[in-house]
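>> received
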Amino acid sequence: MTDTFRAILVSRDDDKKQSVDFVDMREDELMEGDVTVAVEATTVNYKDGLAITGMAPVVRRWPMVPGIDLAGTVVSSDHPDWQNGDRVILNGWGVGETHYGAYAGRARLKGDWLVRLPSSLSARDAMAVGTAGYTAMLCVMALERHGIEPARGPVIVTGAAGGVGSVAISLLSRLGYHVIASTGRTAEADYLRDLGAAEILDRAELSSPAKPIGKERWAGGVDAVGSHTLANVLSMTSYGGAVAACGLAGGMDLPTSVAPFILRGVCLLGIDSVMAPRALREEAWRRLAGELDHDKLATLSTTIGFEDIPAAARDIVEGKIRGRVVVEM
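>> returned
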């Protein structure tokens, strides 16, 4: 009998009503690819939550195995870069959206999508970072390229208690930045300070419509919220500053003016993690392995089982999850 493995399959009927089921799958049911990976750990990102709950059109091919992140071991490969036994990480590339993803015991993928798992990280560690943490690193790297150094002044992190925010605070504080953490969950203030936040800002201060230009309060920022929050962050960024934008938890709109850009020379740095080139991914993961405090990584992550993924998906879109969630297979 052909060996099977457990998977989560998201389907919808003719009326576009979505269902989520645990199923048994075989390797010959997987999609095309030149590398097969035994999945050892995955995670639940905000995008995964949207895919499973159907609250946004993340899934674009039906049925679909969700899950945009995985870490595991290569069990077969026709790709020249990978051999059986290699430890690898996968983030993005449309996996879990148009290509069967991480919520299964096996994943068949394109070898060009994979990054080698740094030797200092376990599969669990890598998924405690996940796309959220890897995106946070891309944001930090973008700010650095723009010359936003600690000496320039404070940096703000919005959605601070979420996955991107938690890792961004940890990274930035360790690099010497004065970090202002913006959150709607003021009960998480001690958690955010433990990660390295120097100040806590109630997100209500950034939630109202923004003025075209406001008091200069920070040299840069990492924004995972969008909408009015990002507009306010931009309006209060100091001359020559920059904000790395990577999320839309508060909405896809950006109700602002050109004032911050043409009066203060502020730059808005768009961060895409899904299709980022391999060299950039490898640099981000190299730095994450060396610069992310492993003790803080443990603090900002919790572990759940495979059967708990749907509940965690609901919780993350409802803003009930702090930090990162690791799924151990």
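>> The domain at 4-117+298-328 is CATH 3.90.180.10 (Quinone Oxidoreductase; Chain A, domain 1).
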